[in-house]
Amino acid sequence: MVPMRVGLPSVKFTRRRVIAGLALLAGLGGLITWAAWPAPKNYTAHAARLDVMTGPAGAEKVTLDTTFYVPDDADAAHPVPAVLLAHGFGGTKRSVATEAEDLANAGYAVLTWTAEGFPGSTGQIHLNSPDYEVRDARSLIDWLAARPEVAKDPGGDPRVGVVGGSYGGALALLLAGHDPRVDAIVPMITWNDLSKAFLPEATGKPQSAGVFKKQWAGVFFSSGNSSGRGSGGGGLAGALAGISGDDEDPPREGSLGASPDCGNFARDVCDTYLRIAATGTATDADLALLRRSSPASILDKIKAPTMLIQGQADSLFPLTEADANARGIAANGTPVHVDWFTGGHDGGAGPQADSDRGRYLTVTWLDHHLRGKGDVPASQFTYSRITGFNTSSSNRRPTTSAFSLEQYPGLAGTGSTTVDVAGLPRQIFNPPGGTPAAMSTIPGASSLSSLISGVSLEVPGQHADFLSPPLTSTLDVLGTPTVTVRAASPTGTAVLFVKLYDVDPSSGASLPFGLVAPVRLTGLPTDIARATPVTVTLPAIAARFEAGHRLMITIATTDQGFATPNDPTVYTVGVGADDRATISLPLAAGTPIATAETLWRWVLVALVATLAVGLAVVLYVARRRRHTAEIKVIPEYEQTPLVVRGLRKEYADGFVAVAQVDFTVERSQVVGLLGPNGAGKTTSLRVLMGLTRPTKGEVLIFGHKLTPGAPVLSRLGALVEGPGFLPHLSGIENLRLYWRSTGRPDADAHLDEALEIAGLGDAVQRKVRTYSHGMKQRLAIAQAMLGLPELLVLDEPTDGLDPPQIAEMRKVLRDYARDGRAVLVSSHLLAEVEQTCTHVVVMHKGEIVASGEVADIVGDSPVAQFDVSDVPTAERVLADIEAVRSVTRDGRSGLVVDLDGTPRADVVSALVDAGVGVDRVVPRRRLEDAFLSLVGGNTRASGER
């Protein structure tokens, strides 16, 4: 046999080469171990509950859950500066534990606390109100001033800096504006004006005309209503990574969950949100409340040197918020440094180089301004830009390079250029209720790679594109581009979303960081020829557009992150005044910053060259092994549609949503997943669909371990949310469009079979806008059945259906499970599960309490049904049997009898002796009875995730 070549150079392994290679590997291993070994703990942490007086008059007492980190060498004789470290919205002091430990090891006394209204502290959420959260923080500075370990200024004030991300970043700004004792601040990924952040408008209209950022607002509101399991920390990583572990479990007390409609929010904050969310617009009173909690109101009072770190991948608080803060603070002569990194609320902490730079900037800023140690950054502005991708990573992680400019250029760049785009006016459709909606980014996704990989999705018929010629040179854009657009509307108004795409001729269009410019236009004509062009300021970016690429302006009617008009409307949109427009692009070319990665690259060149051959062999073997592991199938489950083994989901704060779940779905089975609210059904389904990762355990589909993007997922169909279709298309057109989006051949759709099973008949030729809710639900089932997947997972498939439709759905599901397919159904309609399913899995408090065939779960019963020939005579006979507790008629010939332990044979004998014919005797127990007995009759909500 001739050995196969694998494309690697031939290497002769001599004894000398092997020894040299091992020595180099040992040295490299030592370097890696030294770099990765955790730093020793040089501090002591003290947890305490501090009472502070708060409120407009300072007469209300709240208790704050705190932890004070003190360096081991700090005492009255050797005091150290202090840092107040504030967490992000929805977090607690545990969210910033890692950052606190790092700062304590760096020699700072660090005080972390849980803000009012979040677990462990009392009070309510007032959104960083000067009268509440800011007053609380001022009391914490008072507390620090009394600590002997904390360094003092000559006047006795504590040397204190404030660091925070998002919610905590705004607190840092507001506290510095209200308390002159603050000596330095590092606010990260935070806001300038909440009204502009949540009601943006890209043509310069006042915020009362802004477009409501409903999805992010909903995330905020739900985080405030929950028990503190949101994200957001104090540092660059902690602000984005969610709550980290802590040894203590803060008590859940105070006003948490006191109001069913407002949860932990103060009434005025809650009412403002509910009013804006219901109408999509804000009143003057609403705007005033949002601005009360906005640094914009006190920028002229901030004297503390400020390091502003803001994320580019941030649809919540974009770069314009940091720019407004920087300009307002610098106007007073206060030192300001601005840094833009490639992460943010939507992009996480960014690549490692960005995280490292953020930590370095924070510590050097504090060291200089609190300890008089080291120099401040030589420049006023640093930023990073995506310059490539790590091709050795399976998820194509982006890599970045950092740059600096001596002066902060704001959003106008240091120069500019223009690019023309053109195209005829187009009609675009605003769907009823704004559904389906375009997707530009996923709020809070914290995955920069997903943003770069093209998450954005435009809906056909709801957008218009206007292209430029290919670029003749590469453009480094830094700031806010602008473009003119025009629109006509039969209602005189329009809500539109304007976007700047980068069109690569080889890979298609991508939307930088998923950012959009929302526009609300009024006073529009009905004829586009009479429309006046308006200037739209596009989102600020730091991006490179390569030569040969095109720029594309897209105008869309919807975006899932924003509130749009409910009424269906057709707009006509165009660019410029004559079907041509000029995009004005701010440009800047910063000076590259040498990073640790750059320096080490040269150090390791010789080592990499020496080990190249050996590493290539190792990588090849490892890749082959990984590939083998990925495609390995567990033989005993290869023919089993679904196996769930040892599933557990525990959140970072210790909440266990699913404790232990094991069940199997075999071929030809229809399995019902039951449980009261809080049982863990939703979490289990989310794990099953790959929407969340389990803490332990695994899910096998036909023997393949479930992983995102696994080929075996093509054998699974699902309906896990309500149906959503394009209303102006027919049912069959919607199904064909969906199938084309999967990229699989049309012949594999088995469209006719899916439609036959769903039983829609000729209705599939009608436009979906004419469908009833039940028909849309059946169409959604047909969509899930496209390709005739061998495993079908449905969440509440009978939702909204009337009784005849529910009866039809029973038949649909039973028919589908024939020929070896399987169905898993999650439903709260126990009677339907009993009549539809062959098997049942019952969950309670995150565990399986029963599973098996429906008949086995229902079991025996003291109640039986008798079908008899003479009902009146049978009633008299049964009434004379002392042990029989009750007799109830059921139909013409049926009697439901509570035997109370009397043997059924004895009752049958008594009836027969009286001349009554007995046609059938069956136990009479419903699944609902068995369900209630299994879960103890308690089906109230208990915080299911």
TrEMBL record:
<dbReference type="InterPro" id="IPR017871">
    <property type="entry name" value="ABC_transporter-like_CS"/>
</dbReference>
<protein>
    <submittedName>
        <fullName>Alpha/beta fold hydrolase</fullName>
    </submittedName>
</protein>
<keyword id="KW-1133">Transmembrane helix</keyword>
<keyword id="KW-0472">Membrane</keyword>
<dbReference type="InterPro" id="IPR006311">
    <property type="entry name" value="TAT_signal"/>
</dbReference>
<keyword id="KW-0547">Nucleotide-binding</keyword>
<keyword id="KW-0067">ATP-binding</keyword>
<keyword id="KW-0812">Transmembrane</keyword>
<keyword id="KW-0378">Hydrolase</keyword>
<feature type="transmembrane region" description="Helical">
    <location>
        <begin position="599"/>
        <end position="622"/>
    </location>
</feature>
<dbReference type="InterPro" id="IPR008979">
    <property type="entry name" value="Galactose-bd-like_sf"/>
</dbReference>
<feature type="region of interest" description="Disordered">
    <location>
        <begin position="238"/>
        <end position="260"/>
    </location>
</feature>
<dbReference type="InterPro" id="IPR000383">
    <property type="entry name" value="Xaa-Pro-like_dom"/>
</dbReference>
<dbReference type="Pfam" id="PF08530">
    <property type="entry name" value="PepX_C"/>
</dbReference>
<feature type="domain" description="ABC transporter">
    <location>
        <begin position="642"/>
        <end position="870"/>
    </location>
</feature>
<dbReference type="InterPro" id="IPR003439">
    <property type="entry name" value="ABC_transporter-like_ATP-bd"/>
</dbReference>
<dbReference type="InterPro" id="IPR003593">
    <property type="entry name" value="AAA+_ATPase"/>
</dbReference>
<dbReference type="InterPro" id="IPR013736">
    <property type="entry name" value="Xaa-Pro_dipept_C"/>
</dbReference>
<keyword id="KW-0813">Transport</keyword>
<dbReference type="Pfam" id="PF00005">
    <property type="entry name" value="ABC_tran"/>
</dbReference>
<dbReference type="InterPro" id="IPR029058">
    <property type="entry name" value="AB_hydrolase_fold"/>
</dbReference>
<dbReference type="GO" id="GO:0016787">
    <property type="term" value="F:hydrolase activity"/>
</dbReference>
<comment type="similarity">
    <text>Belongs to the ABC transporter superfamily.</text>
</comment>
<dbReference type="Pfam" id="PF02129">
    <property type="entry name" value="Peptidase_S15"/>
</dbReference>
<dbReference type="InterPro" id="IPR027417">
    <property type="entry name" value="P-loop_NTPase"/>
</dbReference>
